[in-house]
Design a protein that fits this description.
The complex is a heterodimer of chains A (286) and B (333). Chain A has a two-stranded antiparallel sheet. Chain A is mainly α and 286 residues long. Chain A has one domain. Chain A is globular, with a radius of gyration of 19 Å. Chain A contains 11 helices and 2 strands, in the order H-H-H-H-E-E-H-H-H-H-H-H-H. Helix content of chain A is 77%, strand content 3%. Chain B is mostly helical and 333 residues long. Chain B has a single domain (2-307), classed as ABC transporter involved in vitamin B12 uptake, BtuC (Orthogonal Bundle). Chain B is built from 14 helices and 4 strands. Chain B has helices spanning 2-14, 20-45, 54-70, 79-101, 107-126, 128-131, 153-176, 178-188, 190-195, 200-226, 236-249, 255-274, 278-292, 296-307; strands at 137-138, 144-145, 148-149, 228-229. In chain B, strands 1-4 form a two-stranded antiparallel sheet. In chain B, strands 2-3 form a two-stranded antiparallel ribbon. In chain B, helix 3 (54-70) packs antiparallel against helix 4 (79-101). The longest helix of chain B has 27 residues, at 200-226. The relative contact order of chain B is 0.19. Classes of the chains: A mainly alpha (286), B mainly alpha (333). Chains A and B meet through helix 3, helix 4, helix 9 and helix 11 of A and helix 4, helix 5, helix 11 and helix 13 of B.
């Protein structure tokens, strides 16, 4: 276990974190803007993978699968938000039960449509090689995930920070009531943010499908990790989600390498301590 | 209330004479009813929604399994000790968890209890040497109490029913007591209770510990009913199912938990053998309960009877009205 091994583990952790960022940033925004606990977020991720697969099967194009799946899931999210979540209001218990119900419905629907076998998304051959960087053999796909997540993160940040639309979102996160007082249509902001969150999750699903596989149960496997990202990063903070994702990726990876017997414990126990000290998460605002 | 008790008694008498499948199903329902009632204490009476209740079930179950498999303990009269240890473990864990969790409220409490139960799940899943990892543990068979073989499903049913009845009685006495009334006061308006001089944190903490104890008890019984324990018992799904059982049955009614457990298990274990689309029904049930039955079945029944002027239904003095089942948004306590 020399320096190269550790560097490789760091790289693995960060690249996994890239995937988690796509998943967690959407959840964080949804919580920040709408204060909604979305237990169906893992389902959006999985559905993204499945829709991506269908696109690949019908058109043979992996590149096309990415935007199509992302948009499809955005539409699903939009419908759920419009028709159901709006009616449930701000009580977290009801949100939990409602979104969990949808998670179950989506899970069964996915099983009925795509079957129960483990499937795989195969990216183009160019991305399945590995390159040698500073003596380390790095899979190109992981580098791709890092690059894509960074690009999306940058785009999101620029959008939130530099555009007027982004300002309205940030205003809604900070204080929805005041935002309404200033004339911002917060319900439209909520709708769009939910759709964006679902889009990011779906996108993560297509990208992650090549990495994690596509199988029934992935939705609930990945959901607690998404929450871990949001918990660390703070609900509603994009930068926090990025940091949270990297931390979760690294802790998860190193936990499995160093303490395989208690690897999830090493992730969730510090989370508990963090939440006990700061319930809104590291960078969260209340 | 009398009708409810009569029904329960009827269940106790009739069930052993039905099919073996139904016997095991009702046994499972009664065990999860204990879990649901313990969560009802937290949710329905104190107003705290926990997303990590499966942890207590899992701890009780794994304790039983580990003692039975690795130490051959709990296979005869010492099963009584296992029950005691399971409840104590649940209580002790709740005591530790509560210290962290009760610093938050509302959605943050949900997050922290989720993280806590994921800690337990993580240990169950990864600590192969102790817990068997993903394979879980297979128990060597139910205890033998002298001439009574608990391997006989009917005998085990009676044991479970006895514990269920004791739990129900204990929880009923608790919620009717001044302590229980203070919990309801905290649910209604915590700040007012504090102004009146109540140590609300301590009340919530004790409620949390008691609920953990009953959860552990349910876990011990659960391990022996199927003879197998695996990390699936400790997942988020189990915790949310428990929440649904309470909400569907009627939060704040105790017996609602029994009804909720009955409905959820009926769907998961009986309907699933009949039709392939049962999970749509379960998912739909989650969704529709929120919109159409926010007080749960028993809660809605009680509202109707109250409106009609009839005496109260169920065991607790007052159900939770949907507007009141609002978890206080807070942050740091």
């Amino acid at each position: 276990m020399d320096a190269k091994f550790w560097l490789l583990q760091v790289f693995n952790g960060i690249s996994y974190g890239a995937l988690l960022f796509l998943l967690g940033s959407g959840l964080s925004l949804i919580f920040g803007v709408m204060r909604i606990v979305n237990l169906a977020h893992g389902s959006y991720f999985l559905l993204g993978s499945y829709v991506g697969l269908t696109v690949i099967w019908t058109t043979g194009s992996w590149l096309l699968a990415i935007p199509v799946a992302a948009l499809a899931i955005a539409v699903v999210g939009l419908l759920v938000e419009r028709v159901f979540l709006r009616a449930v209001g701000s009580d977290p218990l009801r949100q939990v039960l409602l979104t969990f119900g949808f998670a179950l419905l989506f899970q069964q629907a996915a099983l009925d449509i795509w079957g129960g076998n483990n499937l795989e998304i195969n990216p183009p051959a160019m991305l399945t090689r590995s390159v040698v960087v500073a003596g380390l053999h790095l899979p190109v796909y992981r580098i791709f995930m890092l690059a894509l997540a960074s690009a999306i993160g940058l785009a999101l940040w620029l959008g939130l920070d530099r555009t007027r639309a982004g300002a309205t979102v940030r205003a809604t996160v900070d204080d929805a009531q005041m935002a309404r007082g200033v004339g911002i249509d917060t319900s439209r902001v909520s709708m769009l943010i939910f759709a964006l969150g679902a889009l990011l999750a779906g996108l993560g699903g297509v990208i992650g499908g090549a990495f994690l596989g596509v199988y029934p149960g992935l939705d609930f496997d990945i959901l607690p990790l998404a929450f871990a990202v949001v918990i660390i990063g703070g609900m509603g903070s994009l930068g926090g989600a990025a940091i949270g994702a990297v931390v979760v990726g690294l802790v998860d990876n190193f936990g499995k390498v160093l303490f395989p017997q208690i690897s999830y414990f090493t992730l969730y126990a510090p989370l508990v301590l963090l939440l006990a000290a700061k319930p809104t998460g590291l960078f969260g605002r209340e | 209330m009398l009708t409810a008790l009569a029904l329960l008694l009827a269940v106790a008498v009739v069930t052993p004479h039905t099919t073996p499948f139904l016997l095991l199903l009702v046994t499972r329902i009664l065990i999860l009813a204990i879990l649901a009632m313990s969560l009802d204490l937290l949710l329905g009476f104190t107003g705290i929604a926990s997303l990590g209740h499966a942890a207590f079930l899992g701890l009780g179950a794994y304790l039983t399994a580990i003692l039975a498999v690795r130490y051959e303990f709990g296979l005869s009269w010492d099963f009584g000790l296992v029950i005691l240890f399971g409840s104590l473990l649940g209580a002790a864990t709740a005591a530790v968890f509560g210290l962290f969790a009760l610093r938050a409220s509302g959605v943050y409490f949900l997050m922290i209890t989720l993280a806590l139960s994921q800690c337990v799940w993580g240990l169950a899943y990864r600590w192969d040497a102790l817990t068997g990892g993903d394979n879980g543990l297979n128990l060597p068979g139910r205890p033998v109490l002298g001439p009574i073989q608990l391997g006989n499903d009917a005998a085990y049913f009676y044991v479970v029913f006895a514990f269920f009845a004791v739990s129900l009685l204990a929880l009923y006495v608790l919620v009717e007591s001044p302590f229980g009334k203070s919990l309801v006061g905290i649910r209604e308006h915590e700040v007012r209770m504090r102004i009146l001089g109540y140590n609300t944190w301590l009340h919530k903490y004790i409620a949390f510990i008691i609920s953990g104890a009953f959860g552990g008890l349910a876990g011990v019984l659960w391990a022996q009913v199927s003879g197998q324990v695996s990390p699936d018992n400790v997942t988020l799904t189990t915790s949310v199912d428990a929440l649904l059982m309470v909400v569907l049955g009627g939060p704040g009614t105790l017996l609602g938990g029994v009804l909720g457990a009955g409905i959820v298990l009926f769907l998961r274990e009986y309907l699933s053998t009949l039709v392939p689309w049962w999970q749509y029904v379960l998912g739909g049930m989650y969704v529709l309960t929120i919109f159409y039955l926010p007080d749960g079945v028993l809660g809605t029944l009680r509202q109707r009877r109250k409106a009609a002027g009839a005496p109260a239904v169920g065991l607790a003095p007052r159900p939770v009205r949907s507007e009141e089942l609002r978890i206080n948004e807070g942050g740091i306590e």
